[in-house]
Amino acid sequence: MNAASVLIKAVIFDLDGVIYRGRTPFPGASATLDALRSQHCPAYFFTNNSTRSRESYVELLAGFGITSDPDHIVTSASLTVDYLRAQYAGRAPTIHVVGEEGLREELRRAGFRVVARVPKRAVDVVVVGMDRRFTYAKLHVAQQALLGGAEFIATNRDATYPVEGNVIPGGGSIVAAVAAAAEREPITMGKPSEWSGRLIARHAGMAPSEMLMVGDRIETDIVMGRRAGLWTVMVLTGISTLEEALATPEPHQPQWVIPSIAEVPDLIAALAAGGRVPFDWVSQGVQP
Length: 288
Fold this sequence. Notes:
Rossmann fold; 288 residues
């Protein structure tokens, strides 16, 4: 692909599979963020994982030598808060959560009433995310609330979640169980929803075409980026492979594939210089 003088003013990074895997940071992650900071290119972090609050991600990244703040972190939980504020302006909905404490914390901080049990009066919303203590009893409670008329929100539909040397069931697996039990499909907040990428661009005060999305999953990170009008690059440290990227139809295909986050500064520099950047630019010499 010929990319003539593309000026990237900000970068959006996925977290799991891009910055780190499990609790292990990838080589070059901290140096890449330092390089972008020295070039006055702000970094945003966007994860579909709803198990942590934005503040806890700030702490997690600090442990990897990466400085950030809650305003530069977007999670599927924080997007859920944005959606609910818009939908329920002027009142606080009652919410039942199938998920972990980070999701509940984001909702409570927004002033919403989060209930563990479904009261006799039906709840307004059921929000479902990753829950590593998911049980049949939780499934039953969520099902009954949805059958009672509650709105159904999924923080994300990721089937798997990368950890060191393996993958485990992701939030989408939990959502699928609840959807099957209630015979309903949810509204999905996180990637690949295009409005989430555009929301970050508006927050940054930039056009989507001035931002680069760095992700490891075609069906979430890359599809969201392409739909939102962002430039997209896929790293090979997470879920999707180069072969999958090459086989993906062009509208959902990443513009570039690189081995890891460590190559991001060089890619941005090459784009700004108007040089020719092959699709597989630094991918072990494989040609498309």
